[in-house]
Structure to design on (122 residues):
């Protein structure tokens, strides 16, 4: 199944959205987008590295076998989906960079007769 096929399947399911962010402390994520990103090997690799430490895009490009454009596109999608957040980091040489870190500790996907449910926790 191609990536576009898996996106179409995930997006066409009845997907429950997380509760209102003002009611509980659980992070709010774009469930169809997260499902799409989890089918992408580059996004999964970025999540794996960023789950261990916060890094800048430049550090990710240096560390991983991905083009700069691929890293930036995936970081943008992961941040828009609510899985990553950014903070400002200062290099030892004084330069300021945006650092990325994962804001969810766990994601559980449930498949049932009611459709697909994604539970996200900090």
């Amino acid at each position: 199944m191609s990536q576009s096929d898996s996106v179409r399947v995930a997006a066409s399911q009845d997907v429950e959205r997380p509760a209102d962010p003002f009611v509980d402390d659980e992070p709010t994520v774009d469930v169809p987008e997260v499902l799409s990103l989890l089918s992408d090997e580059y996004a999964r690799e970025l999540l794996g590295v960023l789950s261990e430490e916060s890094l800048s895009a430049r550090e990710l490009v240096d560390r991983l076998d991905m083009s700069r454009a691929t890293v930036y596109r995936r970081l943008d999608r992961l941040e828009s989906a609510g899985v990553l957040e950014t903070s400002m980091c200062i290099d030892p040489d004084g330069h300021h960079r945006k650092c990325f870190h994962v804001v969810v500790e766990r994601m559980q996907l449930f498949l049932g007769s009611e459709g697909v449910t994604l539970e996200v926790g900090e």
